[in-house]
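Q: Here's a chain of 339 amino acids. Please give me its 3D structure as tokens.
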Amino acid sequence: MTAAVFGISGLSLTADEKAFFRDSDPAGYIIFGRNIDSKAQLRALTDELRAVHGRDDLAILIDQEGGRVARMQGPLWPKFPAGEVFDRLYDIAPATAIEAARLNAQAIAVTLNEVGITVDCHPLLDVRQPDADNVIGDRALGSEPMRVAALGRAILDGLQRGGVVGVVKHLPGHGRTSVDTHKALPTVTASDEELQLDLAPFQTLNKAPMGMTGHLLFTAWDAETPSTLSKTVIQDIIRDRIGFDGLLFTDDLDMEALSGTVPERAERAQIAGCDIALNCWARMDDMTGIAERLAPMSDKTQQRLDRAMATIADTKDGDSADELAGLLARRDELIAATA
């Protein structure tokens, strides 16, 4: 198996994609808006991916946080709130905010499960900083680590109850970013002591089954190499200090925060200790280059992948529309009760 997650170019697989994916056998795939036209079409696409590999537990990812990061949009699907909504609710009634976040995440999972998506790149455990770039902004669950961890735990639980694996991001913390990593590499000059604030939610939830790095340069830990490509950050900070032993994805390797070709970035990330290279944009030359440069998936990575996918709860057959409506109604009651 190739230790990579690849994007798909359109609404169904091309002949070239199907042949390449069958040959390279990637760990999974990621869905974007360009891959979505209808519920039936999206379900057919995810079924097609499973058929290529013969794996019912195939990791099929999406970014469905709510707010401005939601690949599945209305009117086909409900509009889910950004993390800031639960942060504000926590100010008034912490227990209510936690339960509302869990119900919201379970509702998201119901919509994903219906179309065959098994992994949601959610929740963010990035601690929000007032002077940071808005790339995180209202996506964050708060600026206090205990609150972020409490809401993050509820989201992981809700996703699991709905039959989906959650991915905590962006290890070791994206809350201090000075620029959008899609466009440039941010340099974080905070001290090791100051950065403990950023690490705390990840340490609390270090048993999460999956996680994702962020492309930031932390001068306190490695002044020369972005965290995704830094063995020091991956091994000493994420694995040892945070204690995270789940499956670790890179953030999208196409981002301009990183230098070198995309296949070179994937190889460097794997050498640094990332389990899975994430390549979102379905460019065949990049995908073939990644498959050629990456070492075969290690036994440890395979174990982490299998362990993560095994956390998905069995979901009973039933009327998903009724289940979704009930979850959303209960969530909205909790939010309205404290308005």
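Q: Can you summarize the key feature?
A: Residues 68 and 82 are 7 Å apart (CA to CA).
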